[in-house]
Amino acid sequence: MSLSASAVIKQARSFYTDEKIAAARKNIETHSWAKEACQEAVAAAELYLQDGHDGLWELVTTQNLPRSYGVNQVRGCPVCKKDIDRFGNYPWLTDSANAPWKVTCPSCRTVFPSNDFGAYYRSGIDEHSRFDPARADRSLLTNTLYPDRDENWCVDDGYGWLDPGHDNPETRRYTFIAYYNHYHLWYGGRIAKALEAFSQAYLFTNDSRYAAAGTILLDRIADVYPDMDSSVYLWKDGFRNSHGLTGLGKIVGSIWETGLAASFVLAYDALFPGMDSPEITAFLSKKSKQYPMLGKKDSVEAVRRNIEQGILMQVKPAIEAGQILGNVGMHQSALALAAVVLDHPTFTKEWIDFLFETHERKGRPLGNILTILVNDVDRDGHGDEASPAYNSGWLGNLKLVADALSGQGERVPLDLYDYPKFRKLFHMLTPYVMLGKYTPSSGDTKRAGDPGIIGSADLYVSGFAKTGDPLLARFAYFLNGNQWEGLRGDIFTDNEAVLVEMKRAVDQHGPFEPGSSNTTGYGFAALRDGKGAFERALTLYYGRNTGHGHKDTLNIGIYAYGMDLSPDHGYPCFADGNYERKRWTINTISHNTVVVDRSPQVNQIVAFPHHFEGGAQVQLIDVEAPQVYPHNRLYRRTTAMVRVDDETSYLLDLFRVKGGSEHLYSFHGPEGEALAEGLQLEKQAAGTYAGETIAYADPEYDMASESGFNYLYDVERDSSPPSGYSLDWKAKDTWGVKSVSEDVHLRLTMVSAVDEVILAQGEPPQNKPGNPKSYTYMLARREGEALESQFVSVLEAYRKQRRIMRVEALAVKSEGEPSTGCDAAAVKITFANGRTDYLFQALHSDKLYVVDDFLEVKGFFGMCSIVNGSLTYGYVCDGTLLRAGDRTLIDKSYGALTGSVTGFTKNLSLENEIRVRVEQPLDDIGVERGYIYIQNDGIRNAAYEFTSLKPDMDGGLVVDIGDVTTIRAWADKYDFSRGYRYDLQEGAPFRIPLSYEWRAEE
């Protein structure tokens, strides 16, 4: 596929429309932020103009110079070794303007390489304007910086310095020049920054100087781009690139190449009108005479043709070859931009059709927009990468596709902004907001517990402008600190008109305030209570544990007093196949869940919620995960949040496991000192939890075992622990979120019997600046054949003084006999103010249980409170009876609505419903909103939140599930006409658990 050598097809700008440019210039005239953006672009462009046209042209390096995003990620700096890790993944410093071809260690400040590579590189430029190592003067490859070292020390000829003290190719090579070329010339470096500055400055000012400089740079990139192939520089030799371990790429690895390719395409569209400057052809004609292999560049047509052939026409073939191929939306947005900017009568339509059709390379999507949105985006709007950070990229990348194709008329099969699953992507980040300032560090996301919310206000302003969805206006307003000043879309948006409509939406629907929520398609529940400084929350994750997710199904997180009190580890040291990531950071053992038989969880899509209650005095989440340990009969967690008063709540946590021979409950609190009460701990003499003779991160152990136990050190044990022991963490304000130091604690009291308790230290990734040095882990272990475990604990966050005085387990009976196994549990909690809470939970809601010869419960969960001897509160979930002493608090005919599904919405829609036939009397429903749980094939769950139940004409109920679809996937992703597959079917039984409260004043 090629364009005619005699015709230039593109005639005008096609992405940066006149409307966009007019909006930008209007914003620059009327808004200080836009004026500042313009000034920054102009200042940057003026700085790069100092290089001159020759300097800009010579910035562009050719294929014969390696690229690598790491200098030596395994061993660190040749001088200070691993000390450099505290400065992050890509720590090396450069000053490409004043110290070209040099990198500096931020720890020891040593400069590398020791030779003058610039002189060596220039000596190797051949008659075709390419760098030829065989031609270069190797006498220049000598140490000139460090006379106390030998002449070869840290000398780099472009292919790295091989440390003679090591023979492993992956850890021996230091790639100073390859790193500089990759990260400080090309990807995010001087070339990319200069091109962006010229493009933006020209768009904003129409100054032809910027168009000339940008065109010369872009034309030179087009000269070399077709031959770029990073695959010849191998990972195993130390040349690391972001390519998902495929080894493929062009300038850089295939994943990051998507952004480079898109930036080149956009630059062409931005600079296009200014390319007819005689200054450009005069300079490039001179270069083409100096290097005849470049071809003639004596006309604007020739220059444009070179850019179209050398860049735009490379995009689709490189995607098909895997050289430009990233995460979802990355290469699709590059191709969408290339199609639109090329504006070709044939290729543009073909490329757009390719985007919407299903095309794959070794299982990775090439186009597949509709397949991705229907099959891979879940009903809550999340992608399949598990990590909130990575999933958020789906929205940004696919939005760029939508924006590129907007206005293309009949050349586009559909407007993505009208497509329900695309619009649902905008809702993805809203459930994650914790305490108004955290996105959980779940999966490969952020650092360990650092504050900050993923999402940019301008993206949601733009989304609202396209969809009118009130939630987007409210979320944008929230992200801007709940203020209108400074809130805006991008510089190409008519902000005044959009803000008028946004204000109307916020006035009508109120500011964004996330309550308790359960996104069942993704697998994330959040229980929230309190306001302001006293807001507190619990999270439970039960979604994907693959991709950029961790093996952390049923992991809980705790937030209170403005702090993340049990932070996940977040992004690993390196997101590749290294052992630290596999055996520790993403492994089950490092998370707040249960490890069975010393093995990590196996892959799952999403677990199965059975109960969720939010907003009352008692809130709870109950989830079963049968797939993560397939040989187990049960793997289920129920966690309740109980309000004490406006300032505090506590948690009752029950984790049940049936099957296997060893169950290890793992929990860590915040960074800070942890004190044990009720334990007699003996310190292990040496080694790790894997054994006294097994060292930290022992590679031989890593190869032999998947447990990750060798990453837990400073081990202490109590081999005969009592029930009722506690661990109290005094929280360190790791991230400085508190303006005034406060004595904040998290306390866990375990009331169930275990065989052994272990305390140990475990580290979050240490190459992420600011991460804690370590967390104190509490491991509660049980062992036995056909083991059944019921880990019952109470967690409380408090300041200075505890509200709870005592936590104790209570005896439970059923039919006059003690309840055995792990089917039921009860606790009694005594407070300093005279309040006593009795809490009960059972797996069988249809059985009558007696707790401590005082409380009778028939239901899934029951509770009562007594204050100074008087009953004040009662609660039962999915049950019919709650009796305390001789007083009946709750007595109902049924604890759940049951029946079968009769129909449901079967097309993609913003309005969806499920129709059901109910076994209970319709005139006694008494519930307006909640969750419906439908039995299905077990591949994904069929649990849906509903906002109303209404009688239908056929004697059943209509369950309104809003904009959440029942569609699971296409029936055939290669033939959309065959329709869909669903997460439920007609005739399937369902349950809608009900809850009841009793208060003394009633």
UniProtKB/TrEMBL annotation:
It comes from Paenibacillus aurantius. This is Heparinase II/III family protein. The lineage of its organism: Bacteria, Bacillati, Bacillota, Bacilli, Bacillales. GO terms for cellular component: cell envelope. Its main location: other. Residues 542-602 form the Heparinase II/III-like C-terminal domain. GO terms for molecular function: lyase activity. It is found in: Cell envelope. Pfam families: Hepar_II_III_C. Transmembrane segments: none annotated. It comes from the Bacteria.
